[in-house]
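Write out a record, fold above all:
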Amino acid sequence: MFEIGKIPPEILEAIVMNPIRKNRVRREDVVLRPKTGEDCSAIDLAGELCVLSTDPITGAAKDIGYLAVQINCNDIFSSGAAPVGILLTVLLPAGSCEADLEEIMEGALRAARELDIEILGGHTEVTDAVCKPIVSAAVIGKSKKRKVVQTGGAEVGQDVIMTKWAGLEGTAIIAKEYEEILNRRLPAGIIHSAKEMKVFLSVGKEASLAVEHGATAMHDATEGGVLGAVWEVAECSQTGVALWRDKIPLKEETRLICKEADIDPLRLISSGTMIITAWDGEELVDKLAAQGISAAVIGKITEKERILVSAQGTEPLEEPKADALYQVKFELGQKRKADGYERFCCKNSGGITPFGDQKIF
């Protein structure tokens, strides 16, 4: 039986990736194919590369339209391409009303305006197959000068650069979903600042600067957080990595909220944080800082061994498991209802499942 979260890599390889690779259809116009940890595929259309990616938003109950657009476009940015348009599938639970759909679309349109892309269409439906709103998106982008940067492009000896802060998206989600609880435990200013971290979700600007610098690998740190993202870069690149825990930037808001939630911020979903591999990492950090983007060199690509180094010693850097968001341990008490659907709990055959145990991204 699967645990909540991503399918384990070995099972994903056996049941999903290997059959895809063995498919006898191999078109010449497909130039980037699926691979564990690789977020995009690419198609050569009459001399131009079309880059595609898809992801659902299923864990957050608020801002899901905004999140769906931002998170999916980040995958395109991370390939070095530019998003052009997005298709949205919105599934609403029974009992939803017009206000629920309006909230989702207002957020999606706001993000689309920020990113200068079009919403190309999609599908909307009310169904009893879901217990809370689900948004799934597919985004289409175009490459710049027929160049695509892969997750698996890291080279031995390169620096590992991280932009912004660990747990960025997860901090904003927890602060909004659990605002009432957190307001009883932390200063209001901390909660407000944490919710506002969603304005840093896009990685478009740093992606462009990294490509210009000569980055060979880029990866948006989504489920599994910073540690999971770095492991996926190494896995895709078939390299090792030495990651320095004490060099990983962490905002005070994230530290305090994760302490209250009893979770590891380095394994908390972190969309908006980009992992980059490049030569002359400190030079790239300076270029990013000049454009107002916080960044740091947090490790080095090595031959084989994948390790996490800290003042306490060295430990193996493990493959990503269930995101820390699933382990949030706030006592929610009775299920809460708002805006026509259950915000924090979902009925299932085993009773009531807390928000933190739901699938996300």
Summary: Residues 332-361 have pLDDT under 50 and may be disordered. Residues 132 and 353 are 12 Å apart (CA to CA). The domain at 32-142 is CATH 3.30.1330.10 (60s Ribosomal Protein L30; Chain: A;). DSSP finds ten helices and 17 strands in the chain.
